[in-house]
Each structure stands twice: as structure tokens, then as C-alpha cells.
């Protein structure tokens, strides 16, 4: 069993337990009662290339990333640095995230938030909306076509943007067939953790016209941003390379300033 399969098996057990304390219908009512979130796609399109800055404590590949770790302070610095959106990790066992981090970020910034999670159940989509998310991650490698379609339609019906994540041509074809408006090309293979920006370069030309392309993982320099922008990316999702810098707002300017200034 690879790491993705293990995470998904654990996630299904976790969500089954959570549904016992907060049933699906109750979470659905919470979602429908929540105010409309900020527009995720409009935010990403507001710059020559948008930045989704990530709040992530740790990962299976990198271990602990930042100490001390204050989600609210991190998000505030991201907003001050000019980020268009913030991604917040929801998985606790493998990434150290969760509701507490999301709530802390939602309280201090007005930016659109991405519910960054291994989504396997409708309960999580309603949870994302109830928490104040603008977008929800759907990983093609983690889902059968029927589940992917059901989760995507549910998200859209709630006013959420599904960020449909792919890492090879077959998965991109499935995302295209879904009619995805926002496709994330993950430069990191979630099964092997091998990372290369060539993934964005190879796949971007296969994406459907008009969709918003997000290049994810492995982006650590202004040169990397320019490289994926030339390949066709409309936004980047960056966490680790920012979080390892002591001054986050300055780190964002170093990473994105050149691309933003070029218009």
C-alpha cells in the first residue's frame, strides 16, 4: 500500500466517525446557512499569475516545516504580502492541520480559502462550505469517476470551486471530461513523492480551453514561477518554500514580485 492509499483508508475511517457525531444532514444545514464565500477564481485571475499560499504545519515527505507555527499570523502575513488566496490543510494525522487552523485563518483574513483535504465523502464538501471555504480540493487519483462527479456537482451547487487535482495525462483527461473550471497540476506524484515542474509543462497544453490552471508543488523561486507561467499556469500553490522563510510577506514578494510586475 502506497502513502496515498494509506491516507485515504485512514480518512474514510475518520469521516465515518465524524458523521456519527455530526450527521450528513446536520452538516448540510450548516453549509446552507453559511454566508457566501469570496470568489476564488476571480481572485486568482486578478494578477498575471495568482498565488495560493499554504498554511501547512508538516507533511509526510518534509516533516515539520515551521516552528513556531501560528496559522493566524501566517495567514495575516500572506495577505499582507499580496497572496490572492490561502490554502489550509485539514488533515491532522499526516499534515498536522484541522478545523482549528482553518477557523484561525478565517477569522483574520478576508481572502478566499481552499479547503485542502483528502475529500472522499459529501460530508467534507458540506463541511468546507460551513467552515467558510471558497474552494475544495478534489484529487482525481483518490476518486472513482462517479464519486468525483458527485463531489464536484455538490461543491458547485454550494458555490464552491472544485480545484480538481491531476498529475498525469490520464487524470487530466478525466478532469476535462468532468468539465472542471479549475484544474490543479500537482508536480509531486502523491504515490512516490517525486517532484518535477516538467509535469506542468507536459500537461498544461492538454487542459481544456478556458479553465484556470494551478501549478502545485515544487515551486521555490521566481524562476520557477516564470517557468510554469510560460507553460500556461494561471496560478501557483506554494507552501513549504514560503514557510521556511522567516518573513513571509517578504518571501511572497521575492517569489511573485517579478511575475506580478511584468503584467
How many strands? 10
Strand order of the largest sheet: 1-4-5-6-7-8-9-10
- Figure out the total of helices: 12
User: Which stretches of 5+ consecutive residues score pLDDT under 50?
Assistant: none
| Structural category | alpha/beta
Oligomer: single chain
Quick one: overall form? Answer: globular
**SSE arrangement, N to C:** HHHEEEHEHEHEHEHEHEHEHH
**Between the first and last Cα atoms, what is the distance in angstroms?**
45 Å
Rg:
17 Å
Helix fraction, binned, reads: 40-55%
Q: What is the strand content? A: 15-25%
Largest sheet: 8 strands, parallel, barrel
Mean pLDDT over all positions = 95
Key traits:
globular; two-stranded antiparallel sheet; 12 helices; 263 residues; alpha/beta; eight-stranded parallel beta barrel
Kindly summarize this structure in a few lines.
With 263 residues, the protein is of the alpha/beta class. It has 12 helices and 10 strands. It has helices at residues 3-21, 24-32, 40-44, 71-81, 99-108, 122-131, 145-157, 169-178, 198-203, 222-231, 240-243, 248-262, and strands at 50-55, 58-59, 63-64, 85-89, 113-116, 135-139, 161-166, 182-186, 212-216, 235-238.
Write structural notes for this entry.
The chain is 46% helix and 17% strand. The chain has helices at 3-21, 24-32, 40-44, 71-81, 99-108, 122-131, 145-157, 169-178, 198-203, 222-231, 240-243, 248-262; strands at residues 50-55, 58-59, 63-64, 85-89, 113-116, 135-139, 161-166, 182-186, 212-216, 235-238. It contains twelve helices and ten strands. Helix 4 runs parallel beside helix 12 (248-262). The mean pLDDT is 95. It is an alpha/beta fold and 263 residues long. The longest helix is centred in the first third of the chain and has 19 residues, at 3-21. The protein has an eight-stranded parallel beta barrel with strand order 1-4-5-6-7-8-9-10, surrounded by six helices. The chain starts with a helix and ends with a helix.
